[in-house]
Specification:
The chain has about 110 residues and is mainly α. Helix content is about 70%, strand content about 0%. It is elongated. It starts with a helix and ends in an 11-residue tail after the last helix.
Length: about 110
């Protein structure tokens, strides 16, 4: 693992190149680098995947979470969507496991 001070120095140097970011964004990147240093490879891939989803959301909705929205209701609706997607995946896995036989919602 790289020395945290070396990481900070590297990001401090990059801050001067990231002129398209404001000071708060550059400072946040330096803090993020400090935290990322402490994570393992799987956790880093999780963060990368979440970051990719944030970018897709920003490009799709042109929103950076600044709009006044009911975040609780939206989160609960997303949970319902996730349950649906996971249930479909489970059904497909079970069908594959059983040689293509359809699985009813009551069997396991």
């Amino acid at each position: 693992m790289r020395d945290p001070e070396a990481t900070r120095t590297m990001f401090e140097g990059l801050k001067n190149r990231w002129t398209f970011l404001n000071d708060e964004q550059r400072d946040t990147l330096v803090l993020l680098a400090d935290m990322l240093e402490k994570l393992g490879p799987t956790a880093l891939r999780v963060i990368l995947m979440q970051t990719e989803r944030l970018v897709v959301g920003r490009e799709t909705y042109n929103d950076d979470f600044e709009k006044d929205r009911d975040w609780l209701i939206e989160s609960l609706q997303e949970c319902l969507d996730n349950q649906t997607y996971l249930t479909v995946k489970i059904l497909k896995l079970l069908e594959k496991e059983r040689g293509g036989d359809k699985v009813s919602g009551t069997s396991s």
